[in-house]
Amino acid sequence: MARHKGRGFAAINYPIGMNLGGDPSQALVHSNPDGKFMVSLSSIDLGQGMKSVTRQIAAETLGVPVEDVYVDTADSDTGPHCMGSFASRGTHRVGNAVIAAAQEARAVLLEAAAEELEVSAADLETDGRGNIHVKGAPGRSITTAAASLAAQFKQGRTVSGRGIFLIPFAGVDPETGEMTPVSCFAHAALVVDIEVDDETGEIEVAKLSSAYEVGRALNPKLVEQQLVGGAWMGMSHAAWETTEPYYPDRGHGPEDFNQYLMPGPGDIAPHDIAILERPAPDGPYGGKGPGEMCANPVLPALANAVYDAVGVRIDELPVTPEKILRGIQANGGARPKGRR
Amino acid sequence: MARTPVEFRLNGAEKAVFVEGGANLLDVLRRGLGDMTPKYGCGQGTCGTCTVLVDGRPQLACLTLAETVAGREVRTVAGLPDGAELHPLQDAFMENFAAQCGYCTPGMLMAAAALLERRPDPSREEVVEAISGNICRCTGYEPIIAAILDAAQRRRRRAS
């Protein structure tokens, strides 16, 4: 009886978002009487950072400090429409909608400032620190707060903007059936090192090494956080989680967290991550979105690592000790593939 | 149903409540006393997000009969900060990105607080052991472990 080391590899191309019905999301941006900006969305933040990233995108586009922007995702009944927080679509789809809305609001903000400064809006620029000034003449300046106030209380304007992002309709070539349903792909490669115990069939994940190409990492710490957490979920899907019973029938299926298995804090492995940035042409400031794909490559990589370790090819998830042991038995023993 | 008067200390303050027979501590804290920091997760003692400290020991509030804390000291996340100053664990959780959805965070904080009071300089293994009863679905645990180890350092620095 022995523990066998194995290494598995997987690479993925991951389509960002869906293509059904153009996969739209909308955003509304307006300034409040205090000169701060509100971004209204129905795109829910599940902890993945939707609020942080859309806040950054809005601030960047408006040309105001990030602390002057709030994101309200309070209510999908009253907010602008969004398809939802799934399919890794948030950063890309919602981010683009926020840019469109913020551009429209910025144009009004500059018009309001232009009226106050008695100059042309085309001659104005923002410094990102809360000021609008004439290009080349920083002395001719007004704060974004003062411009918003003037718009609301003097000029009678709403400093606001509407944005929607809709991916172009993908026609089908009648001859070949070819189409381009996805406008933006992210990519990843992952190596997993494991040990398999040929007596118990148990897997121990020793190390994960991965490279993720996510467009521009708009918030690098949040990207890293998602990749670390997502890899854990990938491990969990690959080797632990199932609603099916292990033995012998439905009555033995998991009913709660005691029996629905997931790797705990003692089962995690070190994870080396390289984040590669290749800005997406149609992404907000080049961003794509790590989302689901942070879990995906772990599953095939782990199945490949089991094959490498003991020569058992498992094509049904999760890769449980039982399946490994049955495979070893069918092969007449563990057959490590070894290094070439 | 019979109602029993129960007195205990919650985060240093004397509390006196009437509890229904069979009422659990989590309900009494949340509904009775309005301390919403311990969360209701599974309600059957397997997820850990309702973890509170009873006389310094981590305990699952959803499985603790409220009557059993009579005369004891109960601590929740609401009692972690020192006035306006956050507990070193809270600072470390924020700076190490140890939360995503945040639902497990109160339980993690209390399990970790009990550990640091018992073991001011814990090993990684001791941290893992301390939070092994707390399920997190988002972070993959690594940022939480890092935050607790970081908090231990901050705590020692603050004390010295």
Automatic annotation (TrEMBL), chain A:
Transmembrane segments: none annotated. Keywords: Coiled coil. The keyword Protein biosynthesis does not apply. Residues 4-268 form the Aldehyde oxidase/xanthine dehydrogenase second molybdopterin binding domain. Residues 100-127 form a coiled coil. This is Molybdopterin-dependent oxidoreductase. It comes from Paralimibaculum aggregatum. The lineage of its organism: Bacteria, Pseudomonadati, Pseudomonadota, Alphaproteobacteria, Rhodobacterales.
UniProtKB/TrEMBL annotation, chain B:
Residues 4-80 form the 2Fe-2S ferredoxin-type domain. It comes from the Bacteria. Gene3D superfamilies: 3.10.20.30, [2Fe-2S]-binding domain. CDD domains: fer2. The keyword Iron applies. Keywords: 2Fe-2S, Iron, Iron-sulfur, Metal-binding, Oxidoreductase. The keyword Iron applies. This is (2Fe-2S)-binding protein. It comes from Paralimibaculum aggregatum.
